[in-house]
Amino acid sequence: MDEKQSKKPVMLSGIKPSGELTLGSYLGAIRNWAERANDYDCYYFMADLHAITVRQNPADLRRRTLEQLAQYIACGLDPQKNTLFIQSHVHEHAELGWVLNCYAMFGELSRMTQFKDKAAKNAENINGGLFTYPSLMAADILLYQPDFVPVGEDQKQHVELTRDIANRFNGVYGETFKIPQPFIPKIGARVMSLVDPSKKMSKSEDEDPGRIILMDKPEDILRRFKRAVTDSEAQVRFDPETKPGISNLMTIYAAATGSSFAQIEAEFAGCGYGDFKRKVGEAVVELLRPIREESAKLIRDKAYLESVYRDGAQRASYIARRTLSKVYRKVGFVGL
Ligand code: TYM
Q1: Which of 127, 155, 212, 335 is the most buried (most CB within 10 A)?
Q2: One of 16, 116, 118, 330 is an active-site residue; which one?
């Protein structure tokens, strides 16, 4: 084994800088990454190539990519222990993405829920990138031969397609890619909108009262929880089918405090929803406070952020290059 590659299992994941990071991005993904840096070899990136599948304002995309890096670090991803990089800096992603497009079937790409949702929302811009997005995501993953891909529930289908593409490729050319597993948190894998608990809390929509972003001020967080949709039963009880609003708030509270659903039901027995919502809001304020404060500091230090993404790109490229040249050899390209 190469001396630069340790024997630890590998983890990899990414987030599109297409909007502000939300409580959902944090609980569904980043928190799960930050807890594991000591036991895994970790690669986390800003998926800017993916972000342009939906039209972006260039200045906003650039700003959000750097803010996202600052937020990764503020959430506890130490750049010394995790390889943090910007996807477009490692050109092997786009190159392997092309190759894998040739091993991803039209039918399977057409069945992807995210494609169907985004196509419905952006009827005027159903572009080729949106359709072939999962092949690029498969490339992001397979380049680093990870054991686990920590994502929220909504990305599980893409990781499963990645496994299918990898198996198909391995079947034709022999063992090339390690088959990765999705790694989904038990609590927080699907944080829902506070105003419409049938929809996931999403980062892409501007000014959405149903979402909490990592940089929200405490008073805004408390106000949003105060207005969160509940039901008319006036009982704090976990039942996502009939009580989606309260169950979502319980999930958030459980993730923020570590309490079980049974403990939460006991804690708030006989309590009104007003008190419960205030307590959930306060727990989220305390959960996010250090992240917001640290991100605000880091974002001012452009030189530091640049040193992190340069170093990350170098480390990521080293691994990505090796996998890509193996793939090129296997498919029959003439080496240079
Ligand atoms: P993205 O950018 O939509 O979301 C980033 C991560 O956050 C999780 N997440 C949520 N989890 C719980 N509740 C929510 N409301 C919520 N909203 C978002 C997502 O599941 C995801 O883990 N295609 C990916 C980005 C990507 C990627 C990759 C991920 C590109 N290449 C390679 C893993 C590996 C995406 O759009 O995630």
Answers
A1: 212
A2: 118
CATH classification of the domain holding 142: 3.40.50.620
Cα separation, 65 vs 80, whole angstroms: 20
Adjacency order of strands within the sheet including 10-15 = 82-86, 41-46, 10-15, 148-150, 181-183
Tens digits of residue pLDDT in 304-324:
999 999 999 999 999 999 999
Find out whether the beta carbon of 16 lies less than 6 Å from any atom of ligand 1: yes
Q: Which two tokens stand for residue 313?
A: 């790109």
Report helix, strand or coil for 265. Answer: helix
Read off the pTM: 0.96
Q: Of these residues, 4, 121, 186, 200, which one is catalytic? A: 200
Domain CATH number, residue 291: 1.10.240.10
Q: State the residue range of the domain holding 250.
A: 218-296
Q: Is 81 a catalytic residue?
A: no
CA distances from residue 182 to 133, 146, 152 in whole angstroms, order as listed: 17, 10, 9
Q: Are 41 and 168 in the same domain?
A: yes
**pLDDT, tens digit (0-9, with 9 covering 90-100), for 198-239:** 999 998 657 789 999 999 999 999 999 999 999 999 999 999
